[in-house]
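Quick one, tokens below:
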């Protein structure tokens, strides 16, 4: 699947790197706040950003949001999230249909009875008209109730009926695949259709996506829906997505965390990046390796330097990303004592081993496996960060600037 806006092309599936998506939580009709949040999400690493399109005001706003993003030099493709009235909004607001790069269709929310087929057909016809790919997005909170009731009834007639949860999983899979196939029957190219079947249980998600992988060749959008807040949401999402990604299931991911009050929406993008980087699938930023601390590290000095180093790298990444390609593959070590400190530091591109309890108050620095020298004193953090900057400028040079 190709999702694009102008010269920015995002390729999904067919063995390409897993793509990160996110979604705004602003009122789409509020152009200023929505544009600001899309910019933040894109800056954090989101390669597609989805917006709710649920009212005429939201549909009208999409083109202006797109225009402002373009003016800011941000060409991240926008995805329209449609429920209940998408067939009307896309038809009545052609500037919205054109400004979006992809449409998300929930077959459980496009209509009832005969209207379901009619409205689904309308959305597919509009996707064809504007040459936009679609995601058939099924969710167990809004599953086609007619399909589920029919399958439950059929299940009760079996000699050995399945558990109700198994029927629900099967309904999710069948709804996603059958509606994707229907989109192709209506004229969409198979390469223009992706599917998702989201649930909020880790084991359920794994089971559903294993079935989807076995039954179809469409690109799969992974996401644990309603994952929750804080540590619970982080752990559940990481557990579910990691199992599937390590089985080579999934072509694009979205993390659905409930933000803490006042927390930036970018937390979901940062977690998605961390998952892919931890699995060795993609690199987004230099890795900072640091030890957990023990009785040998009663001082918090190494903890402070590790935090300051992570903050320094985060601050510098926007510029490094533009001018120092490959910097995302760099490894930095900030260690806390003589036990593993020198060894871990030698394994990194650049590392420092701080003194533990009772050790001499100097910190040896290693660059590409060789001891460079030592740092000590109150300016050690600044000096170490200067060494990192020098290493980046020396080893990750933009060919166009040489």
């Amino acid at each position: 699947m190709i999702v694009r806006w102008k010269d920015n092309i995002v390729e999904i599936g067919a063995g390409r790197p897993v793509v990160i998506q996110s979604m705004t939580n602003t009122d789409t009709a509020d152009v200023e706040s929505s544009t600001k949040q899309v910019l933040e999400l894109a800056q954090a690493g989101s390669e597609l950003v989805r917006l709710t399109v649920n009212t005429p005001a939201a549909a009208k706003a999409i083109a202006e949001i797109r225009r402002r993003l373009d003016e800011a030099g941000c060409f991240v493709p926008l995805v329209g999230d449609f429920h209940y009235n998408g067939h009307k909004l896309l038809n009545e607001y052609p500037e919205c249909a054109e400004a979006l790069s992809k449409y998300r269709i929930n077959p459980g929310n496009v209509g009832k009875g005969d209207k379901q087929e009619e409205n689904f057909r309308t959305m597919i016809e509009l996707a064809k008209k504007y040459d936009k790919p679609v995601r058939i997005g099924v969710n167990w909170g809004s599953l086609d109730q007619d399909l589920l009731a029919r399958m439950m009834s059929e299940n009760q007639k079996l000699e050995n009926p399945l558990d109700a949860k198994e029927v629900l999983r099967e309904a999710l899979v069948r709804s996603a695949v059958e509606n994707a196939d229907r989109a192709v029957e209506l004229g969409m190219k198979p390469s223009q259709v992706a599917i998702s079947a989201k649930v909020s249980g880790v084991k359920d998600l794994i089971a559903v996506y294993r079935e989807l992988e076995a039954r179809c060749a469409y690109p799969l959008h992974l996401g644990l829906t309603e994952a929750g807040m804080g540590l619970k949401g982080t752990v559940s999402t990481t557990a579910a997505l990691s199992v599937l990604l390590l089985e080579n299931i999934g072509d694009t991911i979205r993390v659905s965390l409930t933000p803490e009050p006042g927390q930036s929406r970018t937390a979901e993008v940062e977690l998605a990046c961390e998952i892919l980087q931890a699995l060795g699938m993609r690199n987004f930023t230099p890795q900072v390796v640091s030890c957990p601390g023990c009785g040998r590290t009663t001082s918090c000095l190494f903890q402070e330097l590790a935090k300051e180093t992570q903050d320094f790298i985060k601050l510098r990444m926007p510029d490094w990303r533009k001018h120092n390609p490959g910097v995302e593959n760099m490894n930095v070590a900030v260690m806390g004592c003589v036990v593993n400190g020198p060894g871990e530091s030698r394994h990194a591109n650049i590392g420092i081993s701080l003194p533990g309890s009772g050790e001499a108050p100097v910190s040896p620095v290693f660059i590409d496996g060789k001891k460079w020298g030592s740092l000590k004193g109150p300016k050690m953090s600044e000096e170490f960060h200067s060494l990192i900057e020098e290493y980046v400028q020396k080893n990750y040079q933009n060919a166009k600037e040489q």
